[in-house]
Structure formats: structure tokens, C-alpha cells
Amino acid sequence: MSQWSNFGAFSEFAFSGEDSESEKIYNAMVAALGPALAGPVAEAETYADAMCFGAARLQLQAAGAQDDPTQVSYLIEALEKDWRLFAGPGMTLADRRAALVAAMAASYGATNLAVVAGLTTILGTRLIGYRPMSETLGEISRNSVYPPHSPATNAPIRKIQFNTAISVGLQTVDYTRLIDDGNVIQTGDVLVVEPGRNGVEEYVTVLAASWLSFQAVFSRPHDIWTRATTGPFCRWTGNQRHSLIVVDSSVLTDSVALSKVHQFMRKTMPVVSTWAVCAETSPGYVGPFEVGAGLIGQTPIGVSSGETAILTEVP
Questions:
Q1: So where are the chain's domains?
Q2: Rounded to an integer, what distance in angstroms lies between the CA atom of residue 219 and that of residue 169?
Q3: Are 305 and 139 in contact (CB under 8 A)?
Q4: What is the CA radius of gyration of the chain?
Q5: Where is average pLDDT lowest: 122-131, 140-149, 161-170, 193-202?
Q6: Hey, how many other C-beta atoms are within 10 angstroms of the C-beta on 122?
Q7: What is the pLDDT of residues 85-118, one digit of tens each?
Q8: Max Cα separation, the chain?
Q9: First to last CA, the chain
Q10: 144-236 carries CATH number 2.40.30
């Protein structure tokens, strides 16, 4: 129950159900002084000291709160500068505090606890769950290809650059040597063309070769200055580093929230990690993608993609 207090911060007085800092200090001083506290002058001096000490303590508490992202107020700009954050137009104090909490959570690394804490700060109750792909549920798929060394020489590695654009089919390629052992491309060499470029990389076998020129059959077109190598180039694909961020459907059309989620994940997760922000299509499930209903880039395609998941592992 509220009670009249001479120790509150409402001007000099306030209604409060709890003892203020000044009142706690005053009570402690009265108990410590005992019989020495006698007469109105001593009582007035003790009261004045307690009010001063209480105000000083509150100032110290307020200063200490400026390092707490959930309480910071007048030093929030300095804290945002430390964490390289910029307050957007229209952001409230609560929004700016939430951004600080997310930034600090990202600094703890890609632990499950830190990721969930950061996403919860951004989305609140709109976060349904988070988890990576599950080996137990059979969601992880891997594929690796290691092209062989050139069968003609079996070493060393040669790297070239095309001097002309290439079309599909049998093509004659003029090239510039970049790295080799003094020998040019030879008949029978196997070339990895545009290594590492999804949808463009291919392997071709040299059918005929002359000085700085060779013939091969190409299944994809390639631009001028395309590079190729006779060396092995590992091609590894998989969804082992993929995660699901399952949210309320309202998040998928909230561009501000989505931007904050992706910014947080880019800061937190390793560079090879990927993630999908998606909504439940039925309780405990995400996907599969359905034409006219699914959202491109957000609704998982289906079981064959390894992304449809039973959300049994969401914390």
C-alpha cells in the first residue's frame, strides 16, 4: 500500500510502497547513532545527510546503468558509437536499446543461446524458434567433387586466361598463360573452367592443342578473360551450416524486422553459414513451397531440399 514518504524523489515528497534509498540510509544511521541521536537538531542533520547520501547513491546507480543496454539513457549515443550502431529515423529509446542488446549478443559468437537471445530481442514473441539443420532428422545433405589432375602430365598445375568469349559446342580457345612450369596446355588435359562459380563452372577435356591455343567441347558459354586450371578444385556443397529462423507470418512482410534479423545473423554467424527466415505452414512444420502460397526465398522448397523440418529442436 502506498504511504506518505518524506524521502521520495517527487520534488521533496512522494507516495511510495517501498522505502527509498534515502530512507534506508536514514534508518541505518538512526540505528547506528542510538542515544546520540537526541533533539531536533541532530534529527534534522541526520535527515539532511541521509537525503544527500541517497541522492549520491541514485546518481551512482544511474551512471552504472549507462553500461546496461536495457537501461541506458543519456549515454546511449556513446554506447551506440562503441558498437558501431546508428539510430535510424523514428527509432524510439526502446528500439535503440533493443539494437544494442542484439549487437552485444552477437559479440558472444554463434552459440545457440546467444543467437536465440539476439533474435528474441529483435522479434520478441514473434520468434517461434531457431535451430540448425538436424543430422538426426536426416535433413543434412552433402556433396563433394574433386576434379583429377590433368591425365596427360599428372602435374604440375597450369592456370590460363581465355582471350576470347566462348560459346556452347566445339570451340577453339586462344589463351594467356598465368601459372605453369614452362609447358603449355596439352592434348588430354582436363580443365576446370571458371572454378567456384555456381551454374557456370564446368570441366572440359582438351581434344587438340597448339601453342597458346586448344580445342574442347563446352556445355556452357564463357566470357572473355575467363580463367581455367588443370589443377584439382574442390567443389563442396551442403546445408550443414544452414539454420531455420521460424517466425510469425507477420515478420515476413515486415521489412524493418527482416533487415534487423539478417544484419544480426551476418554479424553473429560464421561467413559460411546460411539461414532461412520462414513461417510455420502447419504447427511444427515449415514448407513445402506451394505455388501461389509460398514466398520465394522464405518458404522452404520441401523435403528434397533438406529444409522442411519438424521443429522438435527449437528451444
A1: 3-65, 127-141+239-310, 144-236
A2: 6
A3: no
A4: 33
A5: 140-149
A6: 23
A7: 888 888 888 888 888 887 777 777 778 888 888 8
A8: 113
A9: 39
A10: yes
